[in-house]
Design goal:
2 domains; three-stranded antiparallel β-sheet; alpha+beta; Dna Ligase, domain 1; Arc Repressor Mutant, subunit A
């Protein structure tokens, strides 16, 4: 899907939710939409500074916090980076497949994984609060190379 179409979907979602999709938030969203892999906050800041030389780290982190809160972006904890959600129109629990060779991040949706995780956690009286699952390995292209 084109980044323009994704931006329009995000804008409409914000309107429906009563959230402000500011220019900075839209720009950061656009950077992520045009990326093929996860991007770190400082790389995003560098891109933003090309459009607004006065942008500082708090600007990026506030925009990322908003985008995560809206479900538009996932944080890839193991890489301390961010990736656009592949289906942000619905709230969901993410599973990420991360290629350790090329850095590609693919989001999958497998409700059975979350169900089993919650069952296992319940056995220990544990409540999962951030259920993003990250699996590291090699993508198809890297494993065939």
């Amino acid at each position: 899907m084109s980044s323009k179409r994704l931006i329009e979907q995000a804008r409409k979602a914000c309107e429906t939710r009563g959230a402000r999709f500011t220019l900075v938030r839209e720009q950061v969203f656009s950077f992520l939409a045009n990326s093929n892999s996860a991007i770190g906050a400082y790389e995003l800041l560098t891109q933003l500074q090309q459009l607004d030389a006065k942008a500082k780290p708090p600007t990026i982190y506030r925009a990322l916090d908003f985008l995560i809160e809206q479900g538009f972006v996932h944080k890839v904890e193991s890489q301390n980076a961010y990736v656009l959600c592949s289906h942000f129109a619905e709230q969901h629990k993410a599973q990420l497949l991360i290629c350790d060779n090329c850095g590609d991040v693919q989001e999958i949706q497998c409700p059975e994984i979350n169900t089993e995780l919650e069952k296992a956690a319940d056995q220990y009286g544990f409540k999962v609060q951030q259920p993003t699952i990250e699996a590291h390995g090699l993508c198809k292209a890297c494993s065939e190379a």
